[in-house]
Specification:
binds uridine-5'-diphosphate, binds magnesium ion
């Protein structure tokens, strides 16, 4: 590789994607073949695949492709896989990209042009989410709305992990020590001069989405609680409001007793208040628990991922 070529590292997390790898490489060759002056390195992070994914990746390396394979010891999730890729990328720019061609490779050409114009982060914005199911697109909308209302910095909506980051941004990301990694939030948190290019989200080239409703919900809660204390504050505000209401109610009861004498019936209203407050307290404890649990995992300081082996280009994979 000539020294004057800039290196662009593509980080591709893969989980059971044996059928998607060949179409991905073919599409990349088609798009990137025409760009001169850059060397593209492919960093595949095998996130605990149990199918032929690793074998396919090793075939690529054997065929002399500029492929590095980071083999994780088990499935750690896409966020951890991305972190592993970011820790190993040596490029002047780094682009996380899905293997299923939902992030179209031709966008990379536009990203590089903006990067060369001096931008440090180039986001790929989805101008169209029609390839997503209605539930997914609407729940994503709700998540971004809620997140951006209560957390800072805001995460640009309609934009996934697909983006170009200059090496200064990557160096900043490597300094973030937390093990709860909501990458979209971390990407936004580090800042830097940011612009975007728009693209149309395609359907998956092969295989199936690895995210079900439960995983997405967990992801959303993790994202929200990682960057906002609003849920905790909500209980504070609710507590104050309920106390004020109780005070008003107590005054009302005292005045009524003074005016009309002791009023024995009141079982229904008593039950309603007790149950309401009990429920409120349980929810509050639940929210506290969510934060406490996350702090607990953070306090363990476990590594974000474990690598079984890094197959670098030099290895006889
Ligand atoms: N992926 C991964 N680990 C996981 C889940 C997903 O490495 O635990 C990879 C997957 O192989 C793909 C990318 O992350 O390259 C995006 O996953 P997917 O297409 O299933 O997500 P969606 O596009 O449906 O949001
Ligand atoms: Mg996908």
């Amino acid at each position: 590789m000539s020294k004057k070529h800039k290196i662009v590292s593509l980080i591709i997390p893969v989980l059971n994607e044996e059928d998607a790898i060949s179409p991905f490489m073919a599409a990349m060759d088609g798009c990137l073949g025409g760009i001169s002056g850059y060397h593209f390195e492919y960093i595949f992070v095998d996130d605990g695949s149990t199918d032929g994914t690793l074998a396919r990746l090793r075939d690529l390396a054997e065929a002399g492709r500029p492929v590095q394979i980071i083999e994780l010891s088990r499935n750690f999730g896409k966020e951890a896989a991305l972190s592993a890729g970011i820790d190993h990328a040596e490029g002047d720019a780094v682009i996380p990209i899905d293997v299923d061609l939902q992030d179209p490779p031709h966008v990379i050409v536009d990203m590089i042009a903006k990067w060369e114009a001096g931008w440090e982060v180039v986001l790929a914005m989805r101008s169209d989410r029609s390839s997503d199911t209605l539930v997914k697109s609407q729940s994503a909308r709700l998540f971004y709305w809620l997140h951006n209302r209560f957390s800072a910095p805001r995460i640009p909506a309609n934009c996934g992990d697909f983006r170009l980051m200059d090496k200064v941004v990557v160096a900043a990301l490597r300094r973030l020590p937390e093990s709860q990694r909501f990458m979209k939030g971390l990407f936004a948190w580090v800042g830097f001069r940011t612009t975007s290019v728009s693209y149309v989200r395609e359907s998956r080239s092969a295989g199936q989405s690895k995210f079900n409703v439960g995983k997405l919900l967990d992801f959303a809660i993790q994202g929200f609680t990682s960057f906002s204390l609003a849920p905790l504050r909500l209980w504070h505000i609710l507590g104050v409001m309920v106390s004020l209401l109780s005070l008003a109610f107590a005054t009302f009861i005292v005045v009524r007793v003074l005016v009309h004498g002791i009023d024995v019936p009141g079982y229904a209203s008593l039950m309603v208040v007790v149950l309401f407050l009990g429920g409120l307290q349980l929810i509050g404890i639940g929210v506290l628990g969510e934060y406490l649990g996350r702090s607990y995992f953070e306090a363990k300081r476990r590594p974000i991922y474990i690598i079984r082996k890094v197959h670098s280009r030099q290895d006889d994979c």
